[in-house]
Structure formats: C-alpha cells, structure tokens
Queue: 2 jobs
Job 1
Amino acid sequence: MSNGGVSDLTVAVVGLGYVGLPTALALTDAGAKVIGIDSSQDRLRAIARGAVDLLPVHHAQLACAVVGDGFRLTSDATAVTAADAVVVCVPTPVDARREPDLTALSAACASVVEHAVAGQLIVLTSTSYVGTTRDLLTEPLKARGFTVDEDVYVAFAPERIDPGNERHTPERTPRLVGGAGPNSARAAAALLAPTASEIRTVDTPETAEMAKLWENTYRAVNIALANELADACQALGLAPVPVIEAAATKPYGFMPFYPGPGVGGHCIPCDPHYLLWQLREVRQQAPLVAAALTANTDRPARMTERALELLSRAAVPADGARVLLIGVAYKEGVADVRESPALEMLARLEAAGADVSYADPLVPSVTVAGRVLHHVADPHTRPWDLVVLHTVHPVHDLSWLADAPRVLDTRQRGARVRAEVTA
C-alpha cells in the first residue's frame, strides 16, 4: 500500500451492485483510479449507460466517472493484480431453506486470493457469518505463503447503505473497520475514509462481522415486534401509527418501528439467518430471534389473508376478483424487488383465483408464479375490487383512491391517502 492518500491508489471493486457501485464512485470521486469488476456483462452495460438504481447524487457521480479516465469497467477477475487495494462487495443471500448461500462470496474471495500480490490491501464488505474474513481471506492467503498484516493486509468493513435514503448516504454514515492486525486496520481506515462520515476501528474482523449481524438482527426483531403490537392495537380498536408516534415522544429508550407487509431487500430478510445458522453449528439457541424471523416470514401470508377477508366481507368472490397492489419494490424510493413481500402476496392472491395487477413506476415488470406482470400506468382508469397499498413511492398520486371501494393499507398509514383504509 502507498503511504500517500487515496488519490495515489488503484482500487479494484469486486461486485458492482447496490454496495459496490456507490463504493466505487466514492473512491473515484476521492481521486483513486478504480477498476470496477463484475461477472455480469448486463450489469456492466447498464452501469456504462447509467441505467441503474442510484440516488441522484450518485447518478451525478456516475455520469462524471464513465466519461473520465479514472473509472474502468471489466468482467476480468485477473484485473485485481493491477490494484493496490481490493474491495469485495458481492451479495450474500439465503436459499429457499433460509440457509446462507455463500456461492458468490466464496468464488469472489477465492479469485481475489488467487490473484493477490504483495503489498495489497483486501477489504471484505459483504455481510456474512462471524469468521468469514478469516476463513475466506486470511487463512487462504497464509496458505499461499503471505504473511498477513506484513506483506498483505486484510480487513472487514461492513457496508452501511440504506438504498433510496438521501439522509443516510454512505458518505454521511460512520463505518466500522476490523483489521487482521494494526497495519491492516490503518490501511483499510485510510482507504475507506472518503466513503464515510467517520471510521471507527474495532479490534478484530470478527468484532465487525458480529456488529453487522447485530445491527440487522436488531432491526428484524423490532420489525416483528412492531407488526405484532400493531395487530394488538387493531384488536383493541386503536390505530397503530398514532400510538407509535405517541410512544416516540419519549426521548430515551425507544426507537419507532412501523408495521408493514413483511421484510424485503438484501439485508433484513437474509443477514440474521447467517447468525442463526452459525449458532446452530455451535448448539447455541436464540429463540427470540428465531421467532421474530418466523413472524417476518409469515407476514405476507397474513396480509394476503386480510385481503381475502375484505373481499369476503364485501361478498366479492376471490375467484376473478380484480386486485391491484400499489408498489412491489421492497421499500419506498427504490426499484429493488429482492425478497419483496409483494411477490409472495401476488402469488398467493393469484393462487386464490384473483386477477392480480400492480402499479409501480420504478419496476416495469415482475415474474409471479412463472407469469410476467407489467406495471399498470393508469390504475385510476380501471375498476378494482380491492387495492392493496404495499409500497408507496414519492411519485405515486393516490388521490384517486378516494373512489376505490376497498383499500387495504398493509403499512397502516391510511392518513397519507384520501380514502377509507381498512387494515
């Protein structure tokens, strides 16, 4: 590693998804020469033409980067040999059984280790189990003959990206760095300083790995609790959101979480399962976490039951009922449908015989039970037996719902639309 600033470095970013691309752009903006590596040619072409889901500030960075000479895109994994530092940002999903799927991460780390050169810094950012950095980077590098923290440097620095949230861009968010030794920690902190509001160094990669799992497990458990207490409010004839807002006036010991149709995206539905998977290996029980994850997984089915109940109470047969979902992305302001509860709800409603459609201007099409559905651009012109509010993007105009016969607000924030919302 160079003793100069980031502008003296060539950095390879492996994986150009929701984490890797903003990281690459931040490093480019700081003056580094960046080699963006991704195995998908489609992804590389989309990046080159700017057809990717980014915040406006990052789109502006991308527009500058692709016309400059400091940002190169390639699918050639051997390009890491030309880099002073390598940042690994590949996905860590779960499979159909909610077990960790380490395929992409293992392959990426194996390739980086194979092509590592002396003096290089390797930083892993992908969320995984405690010990991943050791198992996939440190030990394989030692097996190649390197002395870690002396002639190669290794660290884990978990990503902290909230897609679609302009208040919490990575550059405005503190970041953790756990080095495989003091030299590794210093090198990784210096590299990542331009990508975060501050760098907090912890004693080991394992501490940083567990911190990331703790963060997202905390959120998963509190989402499950918010949904459960929202159901309790309804059973008692109360609207949940005013209760939450009242509780949130307490300036300590409380953080508001809001009910919804389930959890989606790249983190909350996946990361806590890495923790449970590892705890099972050491025969450690975590019943509260396990129950919360089960509740979150079951939530889309519960929301589907409520939709069918609304139709039944109105004497509208589910078979042939015209049902529209507003928003299929997993959260507001993004085009990401990974693990979105909407996909399960659409599939379950269709299995019940409903004629399902969706309106989401950020998502042109989705595949449900093998059938491709397309965004309905003019939902206000069609008759619906039921409209389900799943994800309300800022671009949505929902004033027309005042004339809809039935609306199910899965997030129970009916005050946001001029309609009688039943949940």
Job 2
Amino acid sequence: MVNQFRYEIPTAIEFGNGVINDLAKHVKNLNGTKVLIVGDPGVVQAGVVDKLTKPLEDNGIPYVTFSEIEPDPAIQSVEKGLQLADEEGCDLVVGVGGGSSLDTAKAIGLMLTNSGHIRDYVGINMVPNQAAPVIAVPTTAGTGSELTIWSVLSDKEVKVKVSVGSIYNMPTLALCDPELTTSLPPHITAATGMDALTHALESYVNKATQPISEGLSVQAMKMISKNLRLAVVQGENKEARYQMLLASLIAAMAFNTTRLGLSHALALPLGAHFKIPHGVVNAILLPEVMQFNIIGNVKKFAEIATIFGENTIGLTTREAAEKAVTAIRQLKKDVGIAQTLSDYGVREEHLDMIAEEAMLSGNVAVNPVKPTLEDLKNICRAAMYPVAKEVVTN
C-alpha cells in the first residue's frame, strides 16, 4: 500500500492532428525571439522540419537549424548545439524527432541557463536552474521524451550512456501531432511501440508505483494492445497512429515519476556497447525480464495478461501471470521483432561487463525482484538464445 507519493507534471500538452500549425503562436507565448530547431538528419531530409519552419517564417520568427545528431545522441552533440545557440542568440529550443532529437534538445535548453558541462548534471535532481523554454515535437510513438525528466546521452569519449534527470529538464510544451508519425516505416513503428509498452509495463509492476501512475500505465497498455499491430501493418491508419502517440505520452506520464525496471537497466549498456536500437533491445529483453519478475508482483502480471486478451478463466493467479509473458512474446513476434542479443554480437564473455554496468542504474532499485549480477546475466542469456530459436536450430 502506498501511503505517500508525489506526482508533478509542469509540461503543457497540445495534442491532435495539425497542432504543429500553431507553433509560432506558442513561441510568441513563451516570449521566444529566435528559435534553435533541433532535429536529426532523417527528419530534415523527410521534410518534417519544413513543416515547423513554415509557420515560423510566416510569422517573422527567426530560427536556425541544428541537425548533427546521431541515433544514440552524444554529449558532444549537446556541446555543438549549445555553441550554435549561443552564437546565434537563440532563447528557445524546438526539438523535433524521436528520442535522440528530443533528449538533445532538452539538454541544450538546460545548458542555456546552467553553467559548466552537461556531465556535471548526470544523475537525478542535480540541476540548479530551470531550462530555457523547450517545445518538444515527437515524430515517433515510443520514447515519451516529450514529457519526461530524462535526457539519455552517450559519452563517446568513454563509451557509456549517461542520464540527466531533473524536473527542470522537462519541456515547457509537448506539441504532439499524430500525423507526423504516419510516415514511419514498420520496423521503427514496432520498436518504438514496444518501447512505449515497456515504459507502461515496467512502471506498473515496479516497487515505486503509485495510484496515479498505475492508472496511466493500465490505460497505455490497453491502447497499445489494441493499436500497435495495426500501426505497424497499416502505417496510414490515422486512428491507430493517433492512439499509439497518445499511449506513448500516457506511458511517459506513468514512468516519469516511478522509473522503470531491469529491461531499461540492461538496455543502457547493451545500447552503448552493441549499438542495439533502444526500442529493439527493450523488446528483446521484456519477456525475459517479465519471466524473472513474476514472483515479485504476481497479481499485476495476471492483470496484464487480461489486458492483452489472454483467457485466464479457471487459472490460478500464477498461471494467469505466466500468460502475460506469452502475450508479450506473441506481440513481439506479430510486429516483426525476431532478433536476439546474439544477433547484435553479444557473447558470454560480455555478460560480466553488461551486468555490472546495468547494476548501476537507478531502475534496479525499483524492480519488483532484487537481482544479483548472475540474475542479470541469466536474463541476457535467455535473450541471446530463446528456446524457440534453439529448437529450430537443433
């Protein structure tokens, strides 16, 4: 039973088809005089950035674009973007794209009002000052970065991923236009959707869960169970796209206050060292982490099975909980994520390093079952050599 908890969300949300057309109005309301647009090369080439610059140009608002962002956003990109913002006199940041772009934009906004280096603020609640105004425009339905306290960045010099977490790092406004997601290819739709699911599910079963986040998690999982498959196979389906972007947003509202679990703890070193896309690595890990965690929250895993359409009538609570793992394995298969950790070069000799780095994550402390290093290694082993793949191979 949770006796005391806190829930805070300073970010305003504008959600709906076509809301990006009001970008200039929001910039003016936030007293922005020159905008730094932060987007990766993909959103620039796809013409998404043009959809943002047009309303700015029509309203005489000057801007400059920064696009030197990699799939795993680097601390070094934050430095370059900050330098450009300073040189150009930008006082408002608009981030557009997936998690890489949004995390970079948030970090740049943070450093516009805080001295030193972004490394100085790694951890949680280390930031002294509110960031400059940041408007986050997501183009994927998964990361939830438009509404979270976190910027997850790669430090290329030492080859590690680090996280900056602060209420001051949350965007001023999340401008969420589902129509921007309709052009996403199936594999990215699948990976980002599984990431959103992992956010909702890990928040729901972990030890920091509380009544508000629980309700948000349940709603997000219901929406994902009904819409992810459709969004993958019918990319033009506007209703499915709308529901998935909203589900991602709601899942972010859930985990923002609770943190996550072992899937995300392991995803950091696996992403940093083996370049596994974040949504993909979470999809690979999630069923194995669920299997490990069942005994820590049997009742909620049984509820998850029901949410995902499993027939649990006549089953014990433990038997129903096992069905949750079955359901997520099937979902992962249906959306086309068949990779294993082995496919990305993860081998037995890497597991000590992966487990030791994962254990440093704050997500471990809130996981429903306290893991040992060997437990983390066994989860990775299960994700390297799934039973189904061994049967086929043999």
